[in-house]
Amino acid sequence: MFKKILIANRGEIACRVIETARRLGIRTVAVYSDADANSKHVALADEAWRLGPAPVAESYLKVERIIEICRLSKAEAVHPGYGFLSENPGFVDALTAAGITFIGPSADAIRAMGLKDAAKALMQKAGVPVVPGYHGDNQDPAFLKARADEIGYPVLIKARAGGGGKGMRRVDDPIDFLAALEGAQREGQASFGDPCVLIEKYLTKPRHIEIQVFGDNHGNAVHLFERDCSLQRRHQKVIEEAPAPGMPEAMRAAMGAAAVRAAKAINYSGAGTIEFIADVSDGLSEDRFYFMEMNTRLQVEHPVTEAITGQDLVEWQLKVASGEKLPLTQDQLSINGWAFEARLYAEDAAKGFLPATGTLDHLRLPAHIARVDSGVRQGDTITPYYDPMIAKIIVHGPDRKTALARLLAALEATEVAGSVTNATFLAALCRHEGFAAGDVDTGLIGRDQDALIAQGETPPTVMALAALASLGLLRPAEGTDPWDRLIGWRGWSASRQFAVLDHKGARHEIEARSLGRSRFAVHLAGNVLELELTHVGDGEIRFDTGGHRDKARLAETGQGLSVFYAGEAFEFVRADVLSGDDEGDAAGDKLVAPMPGLVKVLTAQKGMAVTRGQPLVILEAMKMEHTLTAPRDGVIADVFVAAGEQVTDGTLLLALAEETADAA
Length: 664
Ligand code: ADP
Fold this sequence. Notes:
By secondary structure, the protein is an alpha+beta fold. Helices cover 26% and strands 33% of the residues.
């Protein structure tokens, strides 16, 4: 076994690999970009080395630098994680030339599966069913059109070098074929530098079912059953499960055998996934599944397989790469229970699932009831440079129903403040009747998306708690002095206070009156809610509303607060923060970064006279540029950042000199 390995990745997968390596007594070397210098994977590893600036081309994709760090740190092998360099045969060749082991398959195996058309031809030869279609060399438009007519519409045109759903066009009517072909070729050329396409029969009710395979360097290959990844949004997986609901035993056996044949056909070593598409317009059947592509790496969703087989796939990878045989034979493997994985992302479902960024002011992941694989901690920032994943939440249960109930409970116990997340969307999916019944296909989310992202009304209780919290009335009872315990209690007169909060795009002025010991009346849109606090502490508020005892949790954020109630997060921004009358800060003496990003252009200099509205800083965030201007006329007293620097939201960028008395 290796003594020391380097993990050429970041985030949750780097942390995941480090944990197994540590358990096996293997020392770990992390690598990081400037944006990740203080991140969790760096802290977890035994040592960490800087790669370069934040953009991936200057850091996580730098082959020579990674090999140099292997030499400097004396790492014997490299685990690539997923993404980045994990399916790059040139990287494998460069490592091999430097005498370093790649923890993964051979460069030849990666190349064999790199292009969809060649992979399909290879699989057909190995007796693996492929989607009916044409995947040859002839790219003449008239010839391809004739093939499409033969296959029968609808057809799917796919760029052979495609990935991530790019360069794909569905054609329903022969009249549209040539225009769609041109579009797919153009996209293939633009995204992958390769205009070649293949044509497939388009399946109208497909399920994405993939088989986990494993090979070693002694000619052995096994499969570890299937995962169903049909819950997709725009071809991106959202919730995965294992096994696949409703899977007939004969089909499982046929798919497993086909996947092992596929792996053996390319002398596969290490962890891999054979992705199949199953035509379920007439239910699942062993004669209606087809090879789609092979991923020659560990997948994001591998934990569901680990949960049902009781195996650690990273441990298997390390053993196989160090020359050992596969830990188990096919008949030693079996399925135990059911598992789900949900991908928790910083993204705004209501705004078209726009990736979000932000500093995680508050983060409470449900590690007490689920397996949580995460690369971030409370206080960390989701930057625009990388995948905005916060965590993978994995649950296991004796059966599908129990496991799904656990997934919902885990999502409801998840608390994130400082960035929007898809947690509510994931929870809504868990409650979806079709999904609960196991009636899934890749179109499910698209069909029901509006209902899945619909936002309900904010419960009055939540509005009341937010108001009390923003007025400072929800402080924990401290000390032993009974007077300290009288929350919001001001002598014997009922005091009236107003909270001004922005919530879901509207401003709310909420009146709160103290009624006595820990009792309040909160006035909400004509209604009065009376509420008695029974406990406040550790972020938890317990209260009584007329004989109903309930609880919520609360977290302060940079601009306001978040209330977590009944499994949902509600964000409030204090109006004084927005209107800028908070201690004169936003009144114009300072310029603060409104979001995490990169200081792209900095025109401000110390001592420079500026006029209100003059552009001073251009911040690049989420691949867009945001111009920040002078808040008032004045002179720049100090500049605290430099061009090229990565900043978090709330970072002080520059300050203006105080107004002098003779300023007109
Ligand atoms: P990419 O490599 O771009 O991700 P894939 O070939 O893996 O493309 O397909 C991505 C997704 O597109 C699948 O998971 C499935 O939802 C859909 N898809 C692919 N092929 C077909 C097909 N022949 N019919 C219907 N849907 C398909």
